[in-house]
Amino acid sequence: MKHLTEYRSVELVEQYVAELHRTATRPWTLMEVCGGQTHSLVKNGLLNLLPPSITMVHGPGCPVCVTPLNLIDKAVYLAEERGVMLCSFGDMIRVPGSQKSLLDAKAAGADVRILYSPLEAVRLARENPHRDVVFFAVGFETTAPANALSVLQARQLGLKNYSILASHVLVPPAMEAVMQDADTNIQSFLAAGHVCAIMGLDEYLPLVRRYGLPIVVTGFEPVDLLQGILMAVRQLERGEARLENQYVRVVRPEGNPEARRIIGQVFETVDREWRGIGTIPGSGWAVRPELADFDADKKFAVTIAKAPECPDCIAGLVLKGIKKPHECSQFGRACTPERPLGAPMVSSEGACAAYYHFASVETQDVASLQISKL
Amino acid sequence: MILSCPMPKLDFDVITLGHGSGGILTHKLLEAGVFDLLRNPLLDTHHDGAMLTFGGPVAFTTDSYVITPVFFPGGNIGELAVNGTVNDLAMCGAIPRYLSLSFILEEGLTMTEFWQVLVSIKEAAERAGVQVVTGDTKVVERGKGDKLFINTSGLGEVHPRAAISSRRVQPGDKIIVSGPVATHGIAIMSVREGLAFDTTLESDTAPLNHTVRALLDEFGSGIHLLRDPTRGGVATVLNEIARDTKTGVDIRQAAIPVLDEVMGACELLGLDPLYVANEGVFLALVAAEVADRFVGMLQSLPYGESAAIIGEVVAAHPGQVVLTSRIGGRRVVNMLVGEQLPRIC
């Protein structure tokens, strides 16, 4: 495990934890934006190692969790009613739509396939010229280059049977939305390292200035996260507000200009609805009008009435960091990964699922909940 | 691929519905291939079943094999069907003796493929020291099966010193894993559609009965429980044990052997090796006083070189598995929900 072992070193973790205990003199509330970071914090039991004065709030950075219900309904409709070969990343297919998930549609006979790359879907389109192949292109800035590349590749190959159902979301507008919420108490952000590897650092500077808070671009391993938290807390303790990059081994200040060029060829910025949060201006990417043939939404002209969300699910409050997953009355009771009421309980990047799967032994009442189910 | 037993000359190349009719074609198929290849006095009677004699307690198990793809790095469905059932018997503390072998073949399966599977069944049975004594063949229409499905049932004599039972599990017992986990599942995933990635990984499918028998000879009732963490992986089996025995299970992430390449693939695919399937690994819960000697001996036996103590049974948190992460955090390890699905980013 080259380049990973050192970021999981027990000695380094202990050093950073000790340093955090020395550094934090007051209560601080930080938000890690990215679901991958939430997953890592909980999975590695890091939250129990932090000083009690530091509260980590889990942000809306789970692309699966924020994909609108209506779009999942559209994907199900395309697979079931229009007979397309619907290809998707794995954790998207278990997310409940208003009636069913893609997994339910698959069980009922629809052609739903789990792929790791949209380029695989292009290959399937080439091999099955008489089938329409649709790739469910969800994700943050991280997955956009590959999704854009698949469209360019399909166009170059002259494929008429490939399109994407796109629901790309962008991190900085979501952070903005969190800060504009009257109930927010976030004092600093850990920004998502992988997103910045594509987009670079500049787009976070306005947030630092406007809200006067430290933002630390952070990686995903235990040592990365603790280092990122320490950098943020040091700034907070000194009353500073700067943009820092903890993840220098991956993130260059300018990001990846070539990837952004490819994104720009295929996508344009639009207002986007976030499940559980609502519409955030300029927070998404949609396929450019001149590539409408590759935009499943336009190609199949799907209109599906918007279904209401489950009234018992507080996903929006969880995604904005206002409530912790286990503060929901349904958590672990009516809402479990087997029977999720909302998306954050589905994806392993979702805060609710992370809390459920990796319940920390000391702090969780999930433990007693689960024992009562035995 | 060179087969150790060349395929007999046949006047058909693919399996047709007629081969499942019970008539001439069925006989041709069996006479030309199956019976000759798997010869033994009990099978040679060609009766509706095998008449067997046992002197003492018997363990009995059954398992069906529906793996995709049928041929995978490091093996195929045939040896899996032998090893899997042999290992289930071994986990009961039994010495496997006899197997039944039932095929459900899909119309259109080529004889070449079927023969490859049969040969690997023969070789696996020889390695495990078991005899196939009865069987059945059915054919389903094209599209109703995935090349072929296999069911094997197995009978074995319970080892005279074995006392394997979840009732014997108690706080203080050490939990031992016989080898690196998640290898089989990742090897299979590496050749699945949409997932294919380049790897030299091979399935760890193996017969564990000789290894287990040697351990039973030596430690007898010091071995409280044996489990075969196939589907659902180590995490699922440990959860079952914790629930069944109303004890707690504590494991240490750093102690669990995982091949580097498997770990890398798990990182890439967003999978937790604790939940990935194994085919040549077992878990043993043994009395604390024999644990070190048990691991020492296991490391000297086939398929046990990387054996390690990964944790223990505790009185705290009954019904739950708790993992201490490499960096000292503690968390609950739950049962898997549905299929392990890869993460997006």
How does this structure look, described?
The complex is a heterodimer of chains A (374) and B (345). Chain A is an alpha/beta fold. Chain A has a domain at 67-170 and 255-300: Rossmann fold (3-Layer(aba) Sandwich). Chain A is 38% helix and 18% strand. Chain A is built from 16 helices and eleven strands. Chain A has helices spanning 10-23, 35-43, 63-66, 69-80, 102-107, 118-127, 144-156, 171-180, 193-199, 205-211, 222-238, 257-266, 296-299, 315-319, 351-357, 366-372; strands at residues 28-34, 54-61, 85-88, 112-114, 133-139, 162-169, 188-192, 215-218, 243-245, 267-274, 278-287. Chain A has a six-stranded mixed β-sheet, with helices on both faces. Chain A has a five-stranded parallel β-sheet with strand order 2-1-7-8-9. In chain A, helix 7 (144-156) links the parallel strand 5 and strand 6 (162-169). In chain A, helix 1 runs parallel beside helix 11, helix 2 (35-43) runs parallel beside helix 15 and helix 7 (144-156) crosses helix 12. By secondary structure, chain B is of the alpha+beta class. Chain B folds into two domains: 18-158, 60s Ribosomal Protein L30, Chain: A; 166-332, Phosphoribosyl-aminoimidazole Synthetase, Chain A, domain 2, CATH 3.90.650.10. Chain B has helices at 24-37, 41-44, 77-91, 111-128, 183-189, 209-219, 233-245, 260-269, 291-299; strands at 58-65, 71-72, 75-76, 94-106, 131-140, 148-158, 174-177, 223-227, 248-252, 283-286, 308-314, 321-324, 330-333. A seven-stranded mixed β-sheet of chain B has the order 8-10-7-11-9-12-13. Chain B has a four-stranded mixed β-sheet with strand order 1-6-4-5. Chain B starts with 23 loop residues before the first helix and ends in a 12-residue tail after the last strand. The mean pLDDT of chain B is 91. At the A-B interface, helix 1, helix 2 and helix 16 of A face helix 8 and strand 13 of B.
